[in-house]
């Protein structure tokens, strides 16, 4: 991640960062260490993490911010990357409105989590 990429994504992602997620420095460190992946688009960005769970490996969308159209345009590439890294599902924990927006793409609510099998 270059400083220019971070500068472009920063204003989209920081409003989505909750106190329990850490601060900006922790987020940047997690991305730079490879523990999280930054997906940048024109006017929006996502941060994901590969996690192991009872149903196997999944890619969790940790943060998303910016223009909705940009975030949605990143989805196919993120899902392809997840498949290539052995993930069996994508999960999202966020606002309830995501369920309505992502339903046509196969995401379903499982408690507080949205999930889509890959």
At a glance:
The protein is α+β, with helices and mostly antiparallel strands. The chain has one domain (3-117): 3-Layer(aba) Sandwich (Aminopeptidase), CATH 3.40.630.
Task: Describe the protein in words.
The protein has a six-stranded mixed beta sheet with strand order 1-2-3-4-6-5, sandwiched between helices. By secondary structure, it is of the alpha+beta class. It is 37% helix and 33% strand. The protein is globular and about 35 Å long. The protein has a single domain, classed as Gcn5-related N-acetyltransferase (GNAT) (Aminopeptidase, 3-Layer(aba) Sandwich), CATH 3.40.630. The model has no long low-confidence stretch (mean pLDDT 90). The longest helix has 17 residues, at 68-84. The two termini are 27 Å apart.
Query: Under CATH, the topology is which?
Result: Aminopeptidase
Strand order, largest beta sheet = 1-2-3-4-6-5
Strand content: 25-35%
Tell me the number of strands.
6
Count of structural domains: 1
Biggest sheet details: 6 strands, mixed
CATH architecture: 3-Layer(aba) Sandwich
Question: How are helices and strands ordered from N to C?
Answer: HHEEEHEHEE
Total of helices: 4
Helical content class: 25-40%
User: Are there runs of 5+ residues with pLDDT below 50, and where?
Assistant: none
Mean pLDDT: 90
CATH superfamily: Gcn5-related N-acetyltransferase (GNAT)
Throw out a few tags for this protein.
Aminopeptidase; 37% helix; globular; 4 helices; alpha+beta
What is the fold's blueprint, element by element?
Blueprint: H1 3-13, H2 24-33, E1 37-41, E2 44-53, E3 56-66, H3 68-84, E4 89-93, H4 97-102, E5 108-110, E6 113-117
Parallel strand pairs: 3-4
Antiparallel strand pairs: 1-2, 2-3, 4-6, 5-6
């Amino acid at each position: 991640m270059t400083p220019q990429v971070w500068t472009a994504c920063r204003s989209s992602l920081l409003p989505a960062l909750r106190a329990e997620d850490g601060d900006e420095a922790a987020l940047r460190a997690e991305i730079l260490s490879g523990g999280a992946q930054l997906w940048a688009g024109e006017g929006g960005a996502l941060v994901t993490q590969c996690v192991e769970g009872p149903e196997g490996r999944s890619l969790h969308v940790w943060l998303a911010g910016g223009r909705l159209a940009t975030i949605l345009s990143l989805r196919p590439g993120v899902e392809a990357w997840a498949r290539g890294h052995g993930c069996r599902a994508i999960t999202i924990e966020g606002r309830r409105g995501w369920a309505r927006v992502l339903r046509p793409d196969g995401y379903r609510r499982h408690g507080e989590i949205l999930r889509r099998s890959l």
